[in-house]
Amino acid sequence: MLHLKTITKDNWIKAISLKVREDQVKFVASNTVSLAQLNFLENFHAKGIYYGEEMVGFTLYGIDEDDNEYWIYRMMIDQKHQGKGYGKEAVQLVIEDIRAMKEPHNQTISLSYEPDNEHAKRIYEKMGFREIDGFVIEGEQVARYTY
After folding, report:
1. Which end of the chain has the least Cβ crowding within 10 Å, N or C?
2. Which positions fall inside the N-acetyltransferase domain (predicted)?
3. What is the CATH number of the domain that holds 67?
């Protein structure tokens, strides 16, 4: 069973050692970049995705200052743990975590992905995210989940 655990001084090195497959590097920023970015983001959470005691992935999400809604900025599963259904389960855990802390006025969760990342697109669609036609940020397609 997967669970989320906050990235702290005790597990950040494990988080930055996680890697996607070589053919996926162009799809997601490194966890090192994500943890550095966290210093400049208020109301964001960096969490390890754990299977038991082993960190198998990483996620970064929080309230975007531009629209005051929740955004998933990063979602990755380590190359050694892909193909096990962890991605879908991790997205569900993030949705549940956001649902537990969101305010009544928060109505959506948004994310973006490279248009040619078909695997991510399929996972997000299965989880209820819908592409917003014509909404592209820095070349990435935006999709939105509505409560």
Report:
1. N
2. 2-147
3. 3.40.630.30
